[in-house]
Write a structure and sequence with these properties.
The protein is α/β, with parallel strands linked by helices. Helices cover 41% and strands 21% of the residues. The strands form 2 sheets. Strands 3-2-1-4-5-6-9 form a 7-stranded parallel sheet. A two-stranded parallel ribbon has the order 7-8.
């Protein structure tokens, strides 16, 4: 039976770069996007009835890796909790037995778990800390059961296709980018590809003794 790579929210930004990692491999993306690609499941993770019914259709599928890249864009604090914490919890409980031995689960999070982010509210910070709890819980449970690794990749400000114009062409955006890069030890703003490269490492067999970790990809910002 073919093994699939399941990516939640993987269509733009970091998700787009992560998709490139699995090029020519069996991928299924899950998001609200109305893509007509055969390897895409249109699903609203805020609607439990919707996503539970669609996840149940994967119950007979062998899964190599699960990547959580979804990001909440609204203002409702309860919805953000449901999307970022509750939905992954339900999904992993439902599909735990489908993940093959030595498979991987990777979450994408935020470095605001180590320092306050002035442009994010209290709910955002609390939920990102909650993701760490999920990672540690499932790293222990799934590791003992089937040698499955579970890790978190935490990022700072990211340069991606969707914001290139703002950061490189607008006066205000260039100012933010330049000031941010000057403050970093590595003197370079993080890119989506940087994050995808870490995900690529974490799903590779060479990383199979790394689990339950919150790995920072931030150009050294956490050192400041």
């Amino acid at each position: 039976m073919k093994k699939i790579n399941l990516i939640f929210g993987g269509n733009k930004g970091i998700g787009y770069e992560i998709l490139k990692i699995f090029k020519n491999k069996n991928i299924i993306t899950v998001s609200r996007s109305a893509s007509k690609k055969k390897n895409h499941i249109q699903c609203d993770l805020l609607n439990q009835n919707d996503f539970k019914s669609k996840i149940n259709k994967l119950k007979k599928t062998k899964i190599q890796n699960i990547i959580f890249v979804q990001r909440y864009r609204g203002l409702d604090e309860i919805e953000e909790y449901k999307l970022m914490i509750l939905s992954p919890l339900i999904i992993l409980k439902a599909l735990a037995n489908n993940i093959v031995k030595n498979g991987s689960v990777v979450f994408i999070g935020s470095t605001c778990t180590s320092k306050l982010s002035n442009d994010q509210n209290a709910n955002y910070h609390a939920i990102r800390h909650g993701i760490i709890g999920l990672v540690k819980f499932f790293a222990y449970r799934l590791g003992k059961k089937n040698k499955i690794t579970v890790n978190l990749v935490s990022t700072s400000k990211i340069l991606k296709k969707e914001n290139l114009f703002f950061f490189k062409k607008t006066k205000y955006g260039k100012k933010i980018k330049n000031n941010h890069e000057k403050s970093l030890p590595m003197k370079r703003m993080l890119s989506s590809k940087d994050v995808a490269n870490m995900v690529s490492f974490l799903v590779h067999q060479n990383s199979k003794n790394i689990t339950g970790q919150d790995i920072f990809i931030d150009g050294g910002e956490h050192l400041i």
